[in-house]
Amino acid sequence: MQPDEFSPPPRIRSALWVSAQIRRCDALAVPAVISRRGDPDAGSILIKVYRGRADCTVFTPASTMAGERGWMRATGPEPVDEATADAYIQRQSQRDSDLWVLEIEDPRGLYQLEDVIE
Prior knowledge:
Elements: H1 14-28, E1 32-36, E2 45-52, E3 55-63, E4 69-73, H2 82-95, E5 100-105
Parallel strand pairs: 2-5
Antiparallel strand pairs: 1-5, 2-3, 3-4
């Protein structure tokens, strides 16, 4: 059976994707930790990028109207303080027991998430 143009693209396992991001961070000498492990196959992923006490952004998976996958700034267009970012993550983790949380400490701004939906 061949995939047709209406089939969604295959999804990569959550555990593998998170592991790849950890390796990317290692290559950049950017500290990254998994602060919460979710379902290894299909758990949703939140990424907290910490650039300073008042400069955190939490990214969540999103899709465009055309169905393209990407990442959305879950905490809004502007960076927030770390307490606000952590409160958002806490609320989401209470709703989703399969949630992964990847925390990246990057004050130099070296880590760039691909496919951010503006």
